[in-house]
């Protein structure tokens, strides 16, 4: 059957102008190539290394905003396509949020965990990110927490949050420091 491939952004979130990020494409295969596409147009090809390819964006500009996808191929045959990853480049105008997790970042399987993204702005909403996911884990509105019930090994990973306001246009914060969640 066709291999399953994934695409994600590291670190996740909106990028500031001049900032950098990496688009990661991964597959359970050891050889072959990944073609990176932006808005349906070919950008670049990389050979698989340790079942993944990493495409770097540095000194980001508005031109880097777009819908990215990976096509995995062996020789000339495309075997699989990834989901679409939206990359945004925006200036940061809001203060940087602080991410916290209760009861702590090291929990037993089956526990309930609460993520709180705190920002000094009266109307900001926030996204909770988990590195390796193509989309945000959850939208968190102002003064709300994100609760994960009965956590398991699949919830482990590196979390961060990023906040925004929606006025005439979107205004963004930088991404919070990351928190690693460990599930025993």
TrEMBL record:
Signal peptide: none annotated. It holds the Pfam family Ig_2. This is IGSF1 protein. InterPro entries: Ig-like_dom, Ig-like_dom_sf, Ig-like_fold, Ig-like_Receptors_ImmuneReg, Ig_sub. Keywords: Disulfide bond, Glycoprotein, Immunoglobulin domain, Repeat, Signal. It comes from the Eukaryota. PANTHER family: MHC CLASS I NK CELL RECEPTOR, OSTEOCLAST-ASSOCIATED IMMUNOGLOBULIN-LIKE RECEPTOR.
């Amino acid at each position: 059957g066709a291999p399953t491939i994934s695409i994600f952004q590291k670190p996740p979130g909106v990028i500031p102008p001049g900032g950098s990020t990496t688009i990661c494409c991964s597959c359970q295969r050891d050889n072959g190539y990944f073609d990176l596409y932006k808005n349906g147009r070919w950008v670049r090809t990389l050979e698989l290394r340790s079942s993944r390819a990493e495409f770097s964006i540095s000194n980001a500009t508005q031109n880097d905003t777009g819908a990215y996808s990976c096509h995995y191929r062996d020789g000339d045959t495309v075997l699989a396509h990834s989901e679409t990853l939206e990359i945004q480049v925006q200036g940061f105008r809001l203060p940087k949020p602080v991410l916290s997790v209760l009861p702590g970042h090291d929990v037993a399987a089956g526990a309930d965990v609460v993520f709180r993204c705190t920002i000094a702005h009266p109307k900001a909403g926030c996204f909770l990110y988990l590195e390796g996911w193509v989309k945000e884990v959850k939208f968190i509105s102002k003064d709300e927490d994100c609760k994960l019930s009965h956590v398991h090994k699949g919830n482990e990973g590196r979390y961060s949050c990023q906040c925004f306001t929606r006025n005439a246009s979107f205004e963004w914060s930088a991404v919070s420091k990351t928190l690693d969640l460990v599930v025993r």
